[in-house]
């Protein structure tokens, strides 16, 4: 009876999470008690939130200032632990009333042994392989005792079975009386213990693998950050070298340039830092919860410990479901930073040092001089340039001319339907549909002539409706792919629509020096005027709008990103030098792979903004 009482007391002194004797026990609002260190680990795993969830009952406790030490201590339990540690453990094998003090504990026998019994025990042939713990190590907490439970209903019976349905240990008599109904899965306690340890090893292996995966991801991000930092350093070195060759009064200009390099590269670095922090937090989460589960030396036996174990295992399984890192995100963020370059001035303004620009991937001379009338992205992710002299020239994202089609057609506008059919607006303002292989389809559209409508432009929206704008008539006609008359007209009161682009439920209209965002009834929602410059707009992949402003008389172009309310977001290309075009007519588009394409009447410029 005394041994049963001692075992019961020892069990009550064990933390349900770490399964060791409590150290600095703290009470949660639900009255459950845990070691302070275990609560610190749990709080860290849940993101250092002020609310701590109990592993046993899942009730939440508010942790003041995220400081577990401020939770109330279980003073009674702490005192009991000190009392138990201060008492001697006597030999449970001796039958005399005056039992000697125990020096070891046999894990396999579940017995405390004095020095005499220990000598005898160690000489028995069948007991040589038993695990024996020194009392000095037990008392200092270096090792833990594996307790053998007695059934509470039948104190003389060991709990040799485990019911997987009830999640509890039971003696054989309890199994017969309470766990024989359908649905109860009863196995030997030893079998459960073995299965449990196998499960722990499996979780540990998966955790190590997942942790290694994210560590490689973090290392990769560091590599990308270093490359971006090298670009910044190289630009700064070039600036400083030229600065030393210039006069001292350029100090202010030098600092502005360095700040601009830093500003442009910091965006990429911040994105990489966010990705790195997210990955490191996941590693910390995996490590913390895995350590709580996998570093145990004992199997949870009572219901609280089992509940805590199940909760922790469930949390870890959820964490393990997270997908492996996507290396494309840091690669693309790094590429934005690596595209920054410093270019020095040459000529009269050489004392201005230079400026920061973005890398241009290609500068391609169009096959036909002064011929470009339109440009649009193809369904295959390439760029189609419509030429006034005839034909549609298709370029890849790296600037290679891959195909020329419809050479006999004088192009004014190009678009594509969702089924990849090509829509062509020709020099007579006639709309024609072509198959994917550019075979002409016998579909007739009733459009306005040049005398009626003036110079036209064309775009196609996501619903496959075809929009044709007319400068002279100051209106937009809307057609269905089936052909025939326009199904409706959109007025352009007070302005001439020069270029037209579909954007979600809106249309972007370019007119002289103004960009207008209108709905499909013609109501102007937002407008932006660039006095003295010629603006050209395009839809950006980030659900925003790109606007290129071209200074034709000096051959300079800048490209900026705007919100759908035409509010400025950021500059992407600043005063990039282009060949002065024959006509003041440009088109702006974006490749599906991220590059920005600007086409003048003579050249195609591809800016790498992936």
Automatic annotation (TrEMBL):
Annotated coiled-coil segments of the chain: 240-278
SMART domains given in the database record: RING (SM00184)
All residue ranges annotated as the B box-type domain in the record: 86-135, 146-189
Positions of the RING-type domain: 15-58
Source domain of life: Eukaryota
Range of residues in the leader sequence: none
PROSITE patterns for this protein: ZF_BBOX, ZF_RING_1, ZF_RING_2
UniProt entry keywords in alphabetical sequence: Coiled coil, Metal-binding, Phosphoprotein, Zinc, Zinc-finger
InterPro entries (UniProt xref): 6-blade_b-propeller_TolB-like (IPR011042), TRIM45/56/19-like (IPR047153), Znf-RING_euk (IPR027370), Znf_B-box (IPR000315), Znf_RING (IPR001841), Znf_RING/FYVE/PHD (IPR013083), Znf_RING_CS (IPR017907)
Entry annotated with the keyword Transmembrane helix: no
Stored SUPFAM superfamilies: 3-carboxy-cis,cis-mucoante lactonizing enzyme (SSF75011), B-box zinc-binding domain (SSF57845), RING/U-box (SSF57850)
One Gene Ontology cellular component: nucleoplasm
Pfam families reported for this sequence: zf-RING_UBOX
GO molecular function, one term: zinc ion binding
Family matches, as Gene3D superfamilies: Classic Zinc Finger, TolB, C-terminal domain, Zinc/RING finger domain, C3HC4 (zinc finger)
Record protein name field: Uncharacterized protein
Protein's organism: Strongylocentrotus purpuratus
């Amino acid at each position: 009876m005394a041994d049963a009482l001692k075992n019961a007391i020892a069990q009550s002194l064990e933390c349900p999470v770490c399964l060791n004797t409590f150290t600095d026990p703290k009470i949660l609002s639900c009255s459950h008690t845990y070691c302070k260190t275990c609560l610190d680990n749990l709080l860290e795993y849940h993101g250092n939130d002020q609310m701590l969830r109990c592993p046993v009952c899942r009730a939440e406790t508010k942790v003041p200032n995220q400081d577990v030490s401020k939770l109330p201590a279980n003073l009674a339990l702490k005192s009991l632990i000190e009392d138990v540690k201060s008492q001697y453990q006597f030999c449970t094998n001796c039958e005399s009333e005056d039992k000697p003090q125990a020096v070891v504990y046999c894990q396999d026998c579940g017995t405390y042994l004095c020095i005499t019994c220990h000598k005898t025990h160690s000489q028995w042939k069948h007991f040589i392989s038993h695990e024996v713990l020194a009392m000095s190590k037990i008392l200092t907490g270096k090792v833990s005792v594996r307790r053998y439970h007695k059934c509470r209903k039948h104190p003389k019976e060991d709990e040799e079975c485990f019911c997987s349905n009830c999640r509890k240990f039971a003696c054989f008599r309890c199994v017969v009386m309470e766990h024989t109904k359908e649905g109860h899965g009863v196995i030997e306690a030893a079998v459960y213990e073995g299965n449990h340890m196998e499960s722990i090893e499996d979780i540990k292996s998966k955790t190590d693998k997942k942790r290694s995966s994210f560590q490689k991801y973090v290392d990769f991000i560091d590599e990308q950050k270093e490359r971006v930092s090298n670009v910044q350093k190289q630009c700064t070195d070039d600036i400083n070298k030229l600065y030393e060759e210039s006069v001292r009064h350029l100090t202010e200009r030098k600092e502005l340039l360095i700040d601009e390099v830093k500003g442009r590269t910091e965006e990429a670095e911040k994105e990489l830092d966010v990705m790195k922090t997210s990955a490191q937090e996941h590693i910390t989460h995996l490590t913390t919860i895995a350590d709580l589960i996998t570093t145990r030396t004992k199997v949870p036996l009572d219901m609280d410990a089992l509940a805590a174990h199940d909760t922790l295992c469930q949390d870890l399984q959820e964490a393990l479901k997270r997908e492996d890192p996507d290396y494309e995100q840091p690669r693309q963020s790094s590429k934005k930073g690596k595209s920054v370059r410093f270019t020095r001035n040459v000529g009269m303004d050489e004392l201005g040092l230079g400026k920061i620009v973005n890398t241009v991937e290609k500068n391609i001379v169009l096959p036909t001089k002064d011929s470009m009338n339109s440009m649009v992205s193809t369904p295959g992710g390439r760029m189609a340039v419509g030429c006034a002299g005839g034909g549609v020239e298709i370029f890849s994202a790296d600037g290679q001319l891959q195909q020329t089609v419809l050479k006999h057609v004088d192009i004014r506008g190009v678009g594509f339907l969702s089924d990849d059919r090509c829509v062509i607006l020709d020099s007579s303002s006639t709309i024609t549909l072509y198959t994917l292989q550019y075979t002409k389809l016998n579909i007739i559209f009733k459009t306005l002539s040049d005398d009626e409508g003036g110079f036209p432009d064309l775009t196609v929206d996501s619903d496959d409706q075809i929009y044709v704008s007319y400068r002279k008539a100051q209106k937009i006609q809307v057609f269905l792919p089936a052909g025939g008359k326009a199904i409706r007209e959109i007025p352009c009161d007070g302005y001439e629509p020069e270029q037209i682009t579909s954007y979600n439920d809106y249309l972007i209209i370019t007119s002289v020096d103004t960009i207008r965002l209108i709905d499909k009834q013609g109501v102007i929602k937002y407008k932006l005027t660039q006095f003295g410059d010629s603006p050209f707009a395009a839809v950006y992949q980030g659900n925003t709008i790109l606007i290129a402003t071209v200074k034709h008389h000096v051959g300079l172009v800048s490209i900026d990103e705007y919100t759908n309310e035409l509010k400025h977001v950021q500059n992407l290309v600043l005063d990039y030098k282009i060949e002065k075009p024959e006509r003041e007519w440009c088109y702006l588009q974006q490749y599906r792979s991220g590059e920005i394409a600007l086409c003048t009447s003579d050249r195609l410029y591809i800016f790498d903004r992936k």
